[in-house]
Amino acid sequence: MRRAFTAALTAVALTACGAGTTSGGADGTLTLATPAPNSLFTFNEVLADRLGFFADEGLRVKIAPVADSVPIAGLVQGRKADIGLVAASDALTAALRTPDLRVPYDERTGGNGFLVGLVVPERSAVRTVADLRGGNIGLASPDQDRAYLTAALKKVGLSIDDVETTTVGPGSAAVARTLESGRIAAYAGTLTDFFAFDDAGLPVRDITPSGLEELPVGGYVVRARTLENSDVPVRFFRALARGTYAGLQRPRVAEAAARQAAPEEWAEPEKARGLLAALSRTLTPYDGRTFGEIRPARWSNAQNLLLESDVLDEPVDLTAFLATNVLQQINTFDRAATLARADAWLTENTPAQQGSTP
């Protein structure tokens, strides 16, 4: 299951982000650039599609899988995609390059500790982040992971200047060997990187200190003009919110849809089920009800870390970049009808799922 999940998260960019520009949803079609299409990681997008919530909003959503090396925010800015799911650091660095991007929907309001972390080999003598003083830390990326490392170091009274850093790239067998050899003492990356280490035969241990939940993982970016001149983004996010709500309230529906979308991820059902439950927690709204809520203070925390770690040269105007004014429209949907649709869908799809359940 882990190999399948890793493969899903590192998909190669496809032709949906190729030549030509999008319509901005004017024809009812949206192109969504995402790093993990049709996977457990984006099961809420899967639910919004398979349960017909996008269709209810009059939308047809084309999925454009994007590799880690492709700047999703740039695809949205260049009108190769209408909406993109991006990391917080990528969103903020893109906002410095252009005033024509907005974040109207925060994705992982339930926390980031499960998705982002700082790991060492299971047998390492390093027990806490404080033990990393003077060590060389490997980074999956030079921005988001450097900022996250900066935050982890601050929790134990250290700064980024107290360690050396080397950008070694996404998790792989080669990076696993580098970590195992001791050439890097620890590695800052994401869930998919750690799965790659497991695939390479290197079990790792998370040493991330508690208390980093005040940092955003990321969100969806759209063009400012599209958001200002069209209700299409709001309709997309309303459908996504319905998919998220259905998945959180009906775990069996989330599992059934995820099995349909990526059966290869369910070779080890108990692990996949545990992963789905953990990912669901990261999507839980702050108040248990309001999906996509953007809290500017969290984004300000992230920006300060990016400035401190020299990822950003100057601050972004968050009051313009964070579009908090559409949240009420996004969350205006019939919750009882949403769950009724989910229950009906499960009834229709249960026989096929029972046939494929080990």
In which range does the helix fraction lie? 40-55%
Low-pLDDT residue intervals, each spanning 5 or more residues: 4-19, 352-358
| Chain-averaged pLDDT | 88
The neighbouring-strand order within the major sheet is 2-1-3-10-4
Can you tag this structure with a few keywords?
alpha/beta; 5-stranded mixed beta sheet; 16 helices; 10 strands
Describe this entry's structure for a reader:
The chain is an alpha/beta fold. It is built from 16 helices and 10 strands. It has helices at residues 2-9, 43-50, 53-56, 72-77, 88-97, 144-155, 173-181, 191-199, 224-229, 232-249, 251-261, 269-282, 296-308, 318-321, 327-330, 335-356, and strands spanning 29-34, 60-65, 83-87, 101-106, 116-121, 136-139, 164-167, 186-190, 204-206, 218-223. The chain has a 5-stranded mixed β-sheet with strand order 2-1-3-10-4. Strand 6, helix 6 (144-155) and strand 7 (164-167) form a beta-alpha-beta unit. Helix 2 (43-50) packs across helix 11 and helix 11 crosses helix 16.
Topology:
Elements lengths: L1 H8 L19 E6 L8 H8 L2 H4 L3 E6 L6 H6 L5 E5 H10 L3 E6 L9 E6 L14 E4 L4 H12 L8 E4 L5 H9 L4 E5 H9 L4 E3 L11 E6 H6 L2 H18 L1 H11 L7 H14 L13 H13 L9 H4 L5 H4 L4 H22 L2
Parallel strand pairs: 1-2, 1-3, 6-7, 6-8
Antiparallel strand pairs: 3-10, 4-10, 5-8, 5-9
